Amino acid sequence: MPDGTPQEWIAVVDFGSQYTQLIARRLREIGVYCEVHPCTADAAAILARRPIGVVLSGGPRSVTEPGAPTIPPPFLAAGHPPLLGVCYGLQALCRALGGEVVRADRREYGHARLVRCGADGLLADMPREFPVWMSHGDRVERLPPGFEVAARSADSPYAAVADGARRIYGVQFHPEVHHTPDGTRILRRFAREICGAKG
Fold it and tell me: Would you list the DSSP string of 3-45?
């Protein structure tokens, strides 16, 4: 491309998570070029460089707070590349698309066990049950139209969700940390199978 951007790359949109750089590191370990951009960056300019996918990071805020960061509308417009929301990114996606996010009765922090539901594309090759790392005080209470639940945990009824038709996926847990043993496998599936990265 004229500006020197590789033919295939993934944009990581940073909502302030301490793990954002770790998401980028995991993608690079898979062999996929990626760049981290703040959530305040010009989304249209990012999309003009044709990323093959966008990962929306976690963050320390609550999406229910006044003034909390939101997803720039261009990322949700028709023809967008595949999206993966992680923790805050999942909640921001669901809220922006018509779902409901509420303060959880109990903060979910630490190890959790996920139970996979259905044959969602993001988790299709994962075991029926697998361990993950959670760190959140909000939870998705109602999914947006078009979404299906892909996995549940004891405290998160929508621990992984998907709208396959629009290629939008979200996970409440952190696949980028080593406390989620198969997390890299999930990121690889997003990058390679869903986004089509060849590496």
Answer: T---SS-EEEEESS-TTHHHHHHHHHHHT--EEEEETTS-HHH
